[in-house]
């Protein structure tokens, strides 16, 4: 009996209370401003959720870049006389002609040279372009190297002997062989027929004699962040004596350089050009630079590439390389930075 009375008592106040809540809900819904506030709150929650998802996606993309198997493939630049340069590089430096293409209908020819097969060695890609003029086809015999491009470097066991060979073949020696200032490493500088500088570095036997590409930058810290973030795996394959490195040099007080029209770009391998482009997009939004070619196949061939400019305007091509091609580089190490600072300049080596 007591339980029945308790139930009746609860029902006597619970049912009116429920009716009150229902009427209150209808009352609140009659205020558009309040509805807008609730909707706005929901939008903020949705935006926060979307931002969090974007952050996770960005972090995943950068993590992928650290695991991607990459290496320098080749540097591309223009020369005035292709056959003359091929002769100079093979006879003076001991490079091999890996392949050559003549495409008359496109007024274009190029050649790949290096110290070993392209699937395991860095190479130079020499381009020679033709101009259609009134009197017929004439080759462009001179290009502007600009002030931004520095030099290539070749490691050799005997700098003195190599310099004499270059001199005998008519090459120009711009720095006689000798130890670097304050050190013991023997170096020399020579110039090819188009004016490109080559640093000759005395070292023991190395699997990658074509060992450096030096570019000048206007903000070294920004460049280091850019290449660390995007290329932490791309430039980290082995000890500096076993792989090609990118040398970035900053001259104090100089923030701008001319690019000229001679040096073009470096090419780097990747397992996925589309994911690489995502990473480039993230890094360029933060540090500068831009994608100049969206990822996709080159017309007429199956090779997929994406191209971008770094914060200083240096162009990089990221090229899809088949998985079997890159598996032999699984032993490569993480990137290491060596920063050298002197009174008038600073440089870092990315590898």
TrEMBL record:
Residues 71-203, 209-321 form the VOC domain. GO terms for biological process: methylglyoxal catabolic process to D-lactate via S-lactoyl-glutathione. It comes from Cocos nucifera (Coconut palm). The keyword Lyase applies. This is lactoylglutathione lyase. Its cofactor is Zn(2+). Binds 1 zinc ion per subunit. In the homodimer, two zinc ions are bound between subunits. Pathway: Secondary metabolite metabolism; methylglyoxal degradation; (R)-lactate from methylglyoxal: step 1/2.
């Amino acid at each position: 009996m007591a339980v029945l009375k308790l139930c009746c008592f609860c029902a006597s106040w619970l049912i009116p209370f429920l009716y009150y809540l229902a009427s209150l809900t209808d009352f609140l819904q009659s205020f558009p401003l309040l509805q807008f506030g609730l909707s706005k709150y929901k939008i903020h929650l949705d935006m926060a959720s979307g931002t969090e998802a974007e952050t996770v996606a960005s972090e995943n993309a950068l993590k992928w870049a650290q695991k991607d198997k990459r290496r320098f493939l080749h540097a591309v630049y223009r020369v005035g006389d292709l056959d003359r340069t091929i002769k100079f590089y093979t006879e003076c430096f001991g490079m091999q002609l890996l392949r050559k293409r003549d495409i008359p209908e496109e007024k274009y020819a190029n050649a790949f040279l290096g110290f070993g097969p392209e699937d395991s060695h860095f190479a130079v890609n020499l381009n020679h372009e033709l101009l259609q003029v009134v009197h017929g086809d004439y080759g462009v015999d001179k290009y502007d190297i600009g002030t931004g491009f520095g030099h290539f470097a070749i490691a050799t066991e005997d700098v003195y002997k190599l310099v004499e060979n270059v001199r005998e073949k008519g090459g120009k020696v711009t720095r006689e062989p000798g130890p670097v200032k304050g050190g013991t490493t023997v170096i020399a500088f020579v110039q090819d027929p188009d004016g490109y500088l080559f640093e000759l570095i005395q070292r023991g036997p190395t699997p990658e004699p074509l060992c450096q590409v030096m570019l000048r930058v206007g903000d070294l810290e920004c460049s280091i962040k850019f290449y660390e973030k995007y290329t932490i795996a791309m430039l980290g394959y082995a000890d500096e004596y076993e792989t090609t490195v990118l040398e970035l040099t900053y001259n104090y007080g100089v923030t701008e350089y001319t690019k000229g029209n001679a040096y073009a770009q470096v090419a780097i391998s990747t397992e996925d050009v589309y994911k690489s482009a995502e990473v480039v997009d993230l890094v360029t939004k933060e540090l500068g630079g831009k994608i100049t070619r969206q990822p996709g196949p080159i017309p007429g061939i199956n090779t997929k590439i994406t191209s971008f400019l770094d914060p200083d305007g240096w162009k990089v091509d990221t090229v899809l390389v088949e998985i079997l091609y890159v598996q032999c580089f699984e032993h490569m190490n993480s990137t290491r930075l060596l920063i050298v600072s002197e009174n008038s300049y600073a440089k870092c080596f990315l590898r």
